[in-house]
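The protein record minuted underneath.
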Amino acid sequence: MSEMTDVQAKTFFTEEDSLFPALVHGDQIPIVEFLKASAHLGNFFSILGTVFTPVKSDILGNVQKLQDFINNCPENCQYVNDIVKIEGANPKSVAIDALLWLKRALEFTLNILDRMVSNETYGSVSEDLRPLCLEAYKTTLKRYHGWMVQQIFHFAMKACPWRKDVLSSLAFGKPNMEELVISQLTTALVNLRGNIEVINHLYSIHNLDLDTKV
């Protein structure tokens, strides 16, 4: 079998701005690359279906708030860490709140994708992603949501597409791409997980990770 051409190998994870940045200087997250990758990952929820539009809108809305903060910030803001450094003492900071909710949405997305990879790795593949998505929600976002929002998410989980359809969409409909997509996905999760861990640490040491429900 001949090797794939570059066009054939293109997937959701090879598009421009699709990958989260590697940490620099030990634990600094380049903010421009982080926001571009976050916006791109928000498009994953278009693949899951229109019922997930609120999740995508929430991600893109918080990305825009952070972009506005960077554009209007009189101080040098090169890294995500700088947001906490500049705004951490302001309890009403729009940027702190936006980064917190963006981080939570990214954790939810990471949890879904990580479970898809784990199922593949350990051979217990299920085409029904509904239990997987529901468990990801319970593990991440549920404790921050009131009853009404929880019902909306439970409804959305029941509409999750089949695994093969998600993988096909991630490959832009090209056949026989599951193995490649899973491999690229596994690689993409490394930096995403690293970025989230740094933000969690920043919010923990500054006591900013509040349990306020929406």
Notes: Residues 26-205 form a domain with the Glycolipid transfer protein, GLTP fold (CATH 1.10.3520.10).
